[in-house]
Design goal:
Helix content is 0%, strand content 44%. The chain has no helices and eleven strands. The chain has strands at residues 7-11, 17-22, 28-32, 42-43, 56-63, 66-71, 78-81, 89-90, 97-99, 104-107, 110-115. A six-stranded antiparallel β-sheet has the order 2-1-11-10-7-8, with no helix packed on it. A five-stranded mixed β-sheet has the order 4-3-5-6-9, with no helix packed on it.
């Protein structure tokens, strides 16, 4: 059975958990920084590399049983490391990319682990 993504985990340099967000049952989550009026679901404002994160950096959408991440035209972009793959891929802007459990998203130098 396919593992379902339930949480996003902000990892430290030592791979410890700094912050965990529960996304189970959601259909869309915005990753960015809370500033003034805007509200994001995954707030990286207090992360080590907040300066590399746009106010609205990326969006994850749940569709037909899968999660997809999309770069919202950010300056520093998004990279992804697929589970079981050593390479890190740069995502194209404004092109949804399917993500799975065990994948790690790089938002600036912040690492977000997708897990069940």
């Amino acid at each position: 059975a396919k593992r379902k993504i339930r949480e996003l985990v902000l990892l430290s340099e030592e791979d410890t958990e700094l912050c965990v967000w529960d996304i189970y049952g959601k259909t869309a989550v915005v990753i960015g920084r809370d500033e003034r009026e805007n509200q994001v679901d995954i707030d990286l404002n207090t992360s080590s590399y907040a300066s590399m994160v746009e106010v609205e950096h990326a969006v994850m959408n749940f569709s037909s049983g899968n999660w997809y991440i999309e770069d919202l035209g950010s300056k520093n972009g998004i990279r992804i490391k697929k589970e079981g793959d050593k390479r890190i891929y740069q995502l194209s802007s404004n092109t949804p990319c399917k993500v799975d459990c065990g994948d790690i998203l790089y938002i600036g130098f912040n690492r977000l682990l997708l897990r069940d």
